[in-house]
Amino acid sequence: MAKKVALLQGNEACAQGALYAGCKFFGGYPITPSTEVAEVLSVELPKVGGKFIQMEDEIGAMAAVIGASLTGAKSITATSGPGVSLKQELIGYACIAEVPCVIINVMRGGPSTGMPTGPGQSDVMQAMWGTHGDHAAIALVPASCQEIFTETVRAFNLAEKYRMPVQVLFDEIVGHMRERIEFPEPGELEVIDREAPSVSPEDYKPYDSTKGQVPPLAAFGSEYKYHVTGLNKADDGFPTTKASLVDAEERRQVNKVLDNVADIESNEEYLTEDADVIIWAYGSTSRSARYAVNELRKEGIKAGLFRPITLWPFPNKRTAELAVQAKAIVVPEMNLGQMVFEVERAAKGNCVVAHEGRVDGDPLNPGQIMAKVKEVL
Amino acid sequence: MAERYELRFSGAGGQGLITAGIILAEAASIIEGKNAVQSQSYGPEARGGASKSEVIISDAPIDYPKATVVDACLAMTQEAADKYANGIKEGGILLLDADFVHNAPEGNFTVYRLPITRMAKDDVGREIVANVVALGAVIGLTGVVSKDAGEQAVLRKVPAAFKDLNKKAYNLGYSKGKELAG
Amino acid sequence: MAYDYDKSIRPGKLPHIWCPGCGHGIVMKGLIRAMDTCELDRKNTAIVSGIGCASRLPGYLDACTLHTAHGRGAAFATGVKMAKPEMTVICCGGDGDGTAIGGNHFIHACRRNIDMTYVLMNNFIYGMTGGQFSPCTPTGAIASTTPYGNPDQVFDISKLAIGAGATFVARTTAAHPREIDKLIAQGIKHKGMSIIEVLDDCPTTYGRRNKFRSVIDMMKHLKANSVSVKAAPKMTAEQLEGKFLTGVLFEDTEKPEYCEQYANVIKKAQSA
Asked: Is residue A306 a part of any domain in this protein?
């Protein structure tokens, strides 16, 4: 039988991806340009026995998502940059308490209210460093409606597998445009559920590192009673200020991501093998970049595209390799320079690294990228 | 067809041009199996004033999702024509609602005129289907998708009670568009 | 025979962090008795709090306990309850946590009338951070950040809860320990949002700055200024000046509960 296809907006595809992943809870607050994610889930979640709640504010939405996830429900929220700013307090909570959840950020310009209906890519550093304190982050940056579907599924998988918040960032362009989506059959994409504890309720410790870097998480309302806190805590979940315990827990929580980069990383490369210039681009801008690569090749310029799909953890290794191979890396972003600094860091001076930014509410177009490439070569 | 064909529908907010764009994208991508990307203006401008919807159709995967040089443009009002009937490629097409756009922008493209809104009101019987008349005309004029694919896509989108009305609107637009194309 | 609190306390978690003379322990004991009265299955009970002295309460109790971020208890609890309505959800925290930084979550949880019981310990001060004034610090009182007397006006938490739509609102004080467990138990049994405001004392950061010489003085003050809702109608406005009404202040058993409302949404969605 032919697969189900539909013309969907990126935001709608995101909601469908969440449902495919087994999402059972949405907590959110209306914000442009992400509202279609909420609207679709308000229709679809109750049909599968899931819950949709529109909270009083962005912070409350994040709180409800974490609370729901602790009962075992796969949980999601969707917002935009100003909303993520408000949620940062509790994104940190989800990091330290190790509660799986997915946060969708449909990026617009800014700072502040900025241009709510215009695209931007200025929240990419916020995705890594927005919340206070040391923590690891996973952020995915899909570039098409189909990829928004599959990356939303992968975001749930990574959240459940690594017991942490995972952010999916796409911008207004991809969020609002429509493309054909092929719905994967059930079972076609991997769907991961968090590991449940195998020990008896009496022996259960929610942060027991002897059970691995990612200890199993019990559901509230099951046989397991335990304590969750945002304070630094010992393996039993209760607060501690004992230096050795605090240090070990903080390091475990960061290392569970850094030690598993190979599993979390996802990149796409296009014509990079012989490229003299690499366009390092993500999200909707990578589409302009791919167009530019094709045009530049027609003109005899050996351009290639490196496209991170996992933005955080940062693709250090491959970026460093490309910096050795290429004469230049051009980083087009709909911001005034964010990921370019990470690329520079990874490039270690081995090639020219140049930024091409745009923040006027119009998409960063192929012509701009081509001009920048010609300028640096 | 060309590797990449770009269309822009523009008019007053509420005239249904975003829907027309979506229907065309469905005709291309769902019914004909090509690649298509539809996008639109958002925010207050989508609820009044001029609004636009863009559709890119291609046999190959579509990278850049916005218009670069527009192959065919529709403008239903003077404001829309002033604001959005630009970036049309040499030899491209501009279709105007003859009753509402009096000053056509100048350029190396062919301007066609049809009284689209009046056709919907007088010949089909409901002004509200002007967007479907326009869609039919654009498809007739450009041949960007087949007549049948366009009709199927229209009928998929409308409730049962309005199928005949929309079919009539589409076919009227299509035949007039085809006539214009010669 | 002494009441057996130990079976409800997590082994090894006492002593608690509260100062000698703090009323929070009295409230915790009341909560334990109320949970026993209602025969709550601790596996199926979530106790959720924010940040502050009062919010440390859940950690001592044997249940599913969730110590969240400052002010966010009611919002986390909403997620827990919504996702698993079969759980009993109890919220607790202080006046600053619940009505300042968490004020929005508090009023909206009341508005939804979601089935949970919120035990709000109002000791008129931010205790944990060293005695800064809260929305409940009496006008004129001295706090570490109102050295010249508090210029702010005061929230009446119970009135706020009633106005916001909670369907069971009661008030008592730490000087009325028996009433605490009675009212909390009524709140737990009530289907909908129950607010139990317990006026309580902070001898360390409030009492010593405001001319209460001892904990006993503070308790006497709470007792002397409480008027039960039953007695109040017989009193004159003058007699009621500066007093706090105690007992069940408001009860509405008609207004639909939020999770039941959402269960109807599910039914509609699934039959469509």
From this structure: yes
CA dihedral over A265, A269, A273, A277, signed as positive or negative: negative
Quickly list DSSP for A324-339: HH-SEEEEEESSSSSH
**Is C83–A25 a contact, with Cβ atoms under 8 angstroms apart?**
yes
Q: Considering its fold, how many domains does chain A have in total?
A: 3
pLDDT for position B41: 81
Return the closest-CA partner of residue A98 out of A218, A199, A265.
A218
| Chains B, A in contact, 3 or more Cβ pairs below 8 Å | yes
Whole domain around residue A301: which residue ranges?
Answer: 268-376
Same domain, A136 and A37: yes
Residues of B with CB under 8 A from a CB of A: 22, 25-26, 29-30, 35-40, 42-43, 62-66, 68
Chain C partners of A55 at a C-beta cutoff of 8 Å? 75, 78, 108
The CATH number of residue A35's host domain is 3.40.50.970
Question: Nearest-CA residue of chain A relative to C258?
Answer: A53
Instruction: Say if residue A315 is in the same domain as residue A175.
Output: no
> What are C224's two structure tokens?
């002397």
- Judged by CB atoms closer than 8 Å, whether chains meet at A221 and C105 is answered as no
Closest to C66 (Cβ–Cβ): which among A56, A61, A70?
A: A70
A245 and A334 in a single domain? The answer is no
Contact A116 B65 (CB under 8 A): no
The whole-number pLDDT of residue A2 equals: 77
DSSP E strand stretches across chain A: 5-9, 25-28, 51-54, 75-79, 101-107, 138-140, 165-171, 178-182, 227-229, 267-270, 277-280, 303-308, 310-312, 328-333, 352-357
Interface test with A, best of C44, C47, C78 (most A CBs within 10 A): C78
Shortest Cα–Cα distance, A349 to chain B (Å): 31
Residues of B in contact with A183 (CB under 8 A): none
pLDDT in tens, C65-74: 999 999 999 9
Q: Is residue C30 part of a domain?
A: yes
CATH of domain B5-181: 3.40.920.10
Q: Which residue has the tokens 């998929």?
A: B156
Instruction: Give the chain A residue nearest C66 (alpha carbons).
Output: A228
Global ipTM: 0.97
In this structure, what are the phi and psi dihedrals at residue C48, rounded to the nearest 5 degrees? -120, 140
| pLDDT for the residue numbered B2 | 55
Q: Does A51 touch chain C (CB under 8 A)?
A: yes
What 3-state DSSP class applies to A223? coil
Residue A243 neighbours by CB distance under 10 Å: 9
Q: How close, in Å, is residue B135 to chain A by CA atoms?
A: 18
pLDDT in tens, chain A (377 residues): 578 999 999 999 999 999 999 999 999 999 999 999 999 999 999 999 999 999 999 999 999 999 999 999 999 999 999 999 999 999 999 999 999 999 999 999 889 999 888 899 999 999 999 999 999 999 999 999 999 999 999 999 999 999 999 999 999 999 999 999 999 999 999 999 999 999 999 999 999 999 999 999 999 999 999 999 999 999 999 999 999 999 999 999 999 999 999 999 999 999 999 999 999 999 999 999 999 999 999 999 999 999 999 999 999 999 999 999 999 999 999 999 999 999 999 999 999 999 999 999 999 999 999 999 999 99
**Residues in chain B within 8 Å Cβ distance of A5:** 30
- 8 Å CB contact of B65 and A174: yes
Nearest to C174 by CA among C58, C20, C21: C21
* Judgement on whether residues A44 and A170 belong to the same structural domain of the protein: yes
Q: Of B22, B39, B68, which has the smallest distance from its Cβ to A7's Cβ?
A: B22
Domain boundaries, chain B: 5-181
Question: CA A136, CA A341: separation in Å to the nearest integer?
Answer: 19
Query: What residue numbers bound the domain in which C60 lies?
Result: 16-271
From residue A241, give the alpha-carbon distance in Å to each of A14, A254, A263.
Answer: 41, 19, 33
Dump pLDDT digits (tens) for C202-222: 999 999 999 999 999 999 999
Mean pLDDT score of chain A, rounded to an integer? Answer: 97
Chain B: give the shortest CA distance to residue A266, in Å: 19
Residues C12-52: tens digit of each pLDDT: 999 999 999 999 999 999 999 999 999 999 999 999 999 99
- Looking at the domain assignment, is residue C240 inside a domain? yes
pLDDT band, very low/low/confident/very high, at B1 (cuts 50, 70, 90) = very low
Same domain for A66 and A91: yes
Residue C10 is assigned to a structural domain of this protein: no
% of chain B with per-residue pLDDT over 70: 95
**In this complex, do C80 and A67 lie within 8 Å of one another by their Cβ atoms?**
yes
Tell whether C119 is covered by a domain.
yes
* Contact call for A176 and B40, based on CB within 8 A: yes
